[in-house]
Specification:
The structure is a single chain. The protein is an alpha/beta fold. It has a 7-stranded parallel beta sheet with strand order 3-2-1-4-5-6-7, with helices on both faces. Helix 1 links the parallel strand 1 and strand 2. The radius of gyration is 18 Å and the shape is globular.
Length: about 260
């Protein structure tokens, strides 16, 4: 299926690793132009090299988030270089383990700043350009917004706010023809997830236990499966879909916990 994305420009935060990297690659496959915004210099440069070797075009912006000026300058640089902006993917974030019991007000505020504020900043500065193209906003959230996880108050609160903003922005921006949606992953084996799961010890047993509770095929969702849905939502093939939270999780969130395959 042709998604009509050739030469369209999309900013992807956290685009050098994990889910972000997979989304970038799917965009490249469709002939789109990703603008990769993130702090991972080595990974970003390696990804840029591969994209160009495969005949693709991209822009690499290596900088730390959250920072409103970084978001503003990235939008300006993308539009100056490519002439337009057709969408943004808010993806960057970290499950930083700031809990209620062992965290604190300062750590909680820092976590929310890290995981939420750049979602607003990037959308705000991108908006004038998205109005011109009737573009799209896609927020990558997490099942922690709905299920809780324990021990990660800042991250869970940020993800809950991302879902709320998805519907708020979809409402506000419908008059411009701008669509806003969210994807809610559950268990995805990204580099960040691997680091987190290894922090507990007895990794293999823990992984088997998690897989057992993923109804569809008892396996983790792949980054590529998230990316395929993401690119569809960014395209005009989903032209009447807005304000939606799409769960790409093998049934993890919505199936009864007593489900047995």
């Amino acid at each position: 299926m042709d998604l009509h994305l050739k030469d369209k420009v999309f900013i992807v935060t956290g685009g050098a690793k994990g889910i972000g990297e997979a989304i970038v690659w799917e965009l490249v496959k469709e002939g789109a132009i990703p603008v990769i915004l993130g702090r991972s210099e080595e990974a970003s440069k390696k990804l840029e090299k591969k994209i160009k070797e495969n005949g693709g075009t991209c822009l690499n912006v290596i900088s730390n988030l959250p920072n409103p000026e970084v978001c503003k300058k990235t939008v300006e640089e993308a539009v100056e270089k490519f002439g337009a902006l057709h969408g943004i993917v808010n993806n960057a974030g970290v499950n930083d383990g700031v809990s209620l019991e062992s965290g604190g007000p300062g750590a909680f505020r820092e976590s929310v700043t890290t995981n939420l504020m750049h979602y607003y900043d990037l959308a705000h500065y991108a908006l004038p350009h998205l109005r011109k193209t009737k573009g799209t906003i896609l927020n990558i959230s997490s099942k922690t917004a709905l299920t809780g996880q324990g021990g990660t108050s800042g991250y869970a609160a940020s993800n809950g706010a991302q879902l709320a903003l998805t519907r708020e922005w979809a409402n506000e921006l419908a008059k411009y023809g701008i669509r806003v949606n969210a994807i809610v992953p559950a268990e995805v084996m990204t580099p960040q997830y691997k680091k987190w799961i290894h922090s507990f010890g007895n990794t293999e047993a823990r992984l088997r236990k998690i897989e057992h509770h993923i109804p569809l095929e008892n396996r983790f969702t792949t980054s590529e499966e998230i990316a395929s849905t993401a690119v569809f939502l960014l395209s005009d093939r989903s032209s009447h879909t807005t304000g939606q939270w799409l769960f790409v999780d093998g049934g993890y969130v919505h199936f009864d916990r007593a489900y047995e395959s």
